Amino acid sequence: MGDVLAGFHAVWEFESDSVLIRYERGIRTPRLFQALGERRIPLSAVEDVTLTAGRRGTVVLRLVPRAGADPLMEAAAGQLKEGSDPYRLVLSADRETLAEYYADELKGLLTGSGPVDRYLVAVPEAPLHFKAADAKASFDGTSVQFRWSWTGASSAKWKAGDQSFPVAGLSGVEWRSPEVFEGHLRLLPREAAAERPAQPDQDPASVVFGLGYGPVHESLPFAAAVLAAVRTRPSSAVPVPARRDPADIAERIRHLGELHQAGLVTDEEFSSKKAELLAEL
Question: For the SHOCT domain, which residue ranges apply (predicted)?
Fold first, then answer.
């Protein structure tokens, strides 16, 4: 088609086999859109195209992604607010006829329907990171690292120590929006622990969100990138453990000692965990 359609917060560029969506960076643009920058949506990843009435004299042109085509939408699991849906283009109502034209044109180019068995839409590339309420989370493309915050992490997480999860050992990701109560990011190991804590604040495979910690525009692309890596990476990969910073080890031993003095860690747990930390030097 080769045409361009500009709406509020985004511009759609129509190509023969895809729609390139470029998001604005204005102050009123949802932060998730700004973080995404632009996305190319192959028409093979689209189930349908809809046109509906919007709010305050607008119409909404929307691509309906096929199930399993976009890891971002799979990770979101229907939790995104309407205004943060990256598949919506909001236009003024006086452009409805033009929007109808493009909706019909796009429908005529769709090539498939139903779920797909592989991701067709790309996600932000690693490295990615964000700060949760109890940890700093980072992803380098091969493994996820959780580095616990000494002010926010539970004693259970401090006892377990900082965590590293190779994507080859994961089966999926659970994301609960920070815009709802008890938001969190939980990694799902292929071999689940026999007594895995039900609460994310006690689970070393989870980080919890809070006010200003783990916002949607940081944690959702992170979750989607990990999910995409999990589904596409061979399970035989063996991670190479990285050496730890001695200053970081010393700080963690100090905090472990504080937990011990406060009675939150037993003598046996203190000795065992201290030995583990020293072995990482």
Answer: 251-278
Going through the chain in order, the beta strands assigned E by DSSP cover: 4-6, 10-14, 18-23, 38-42, 46-53, 58-65, 88-92, 128-131, 135-139, 143-148, 163-166, 170-176, 184-189, 206-208
Would the pTM count as exceeding 0.70? yes
Q: Which CATH architecture has domain 128-239?
A: Roll (2.30)
Domain ranges, ordered by start, for the chain: 4-109, 128-239, 243-281
C-alpha distance across the termini of the chain, in Å: 59
pLDDT band at 239 (very low <50, low <70, confident <90, very high): very low
List pLDDT tens digits, range 174-212. Answer: 999 999 878 999 999 987 655 677 899 999 999 999 999
Question: Which class in CATH covers the domain with range 4-109?
Answer: mainly beta
Q: Which two tokens stand for residue 235?
A: 């399970």
Helix, strand or coil, per DSSP, at residue 188: strand
* CA 47 to centroid of chain Cα atoms: 23
- Taking residue 202's Cβ as centre, other Cβ atoms within 10 Å add up to 15
Q: Using 50, 70 and 90 to split pLDDT, how confident is the model at 271?
A: confident
Q: What are phi and psi of 121, to 5 degrees?
A: -110, 130
Are 25 and 42 in contact, with CB atoms under 8 Å apart?
Answer: no
- Residue 105: how many CA atoms within 13 Å on its side-chain side? 17
Closest CA to 116 of 42, 61, 181: 42
Find residue 265's DSSP bridge partners: none
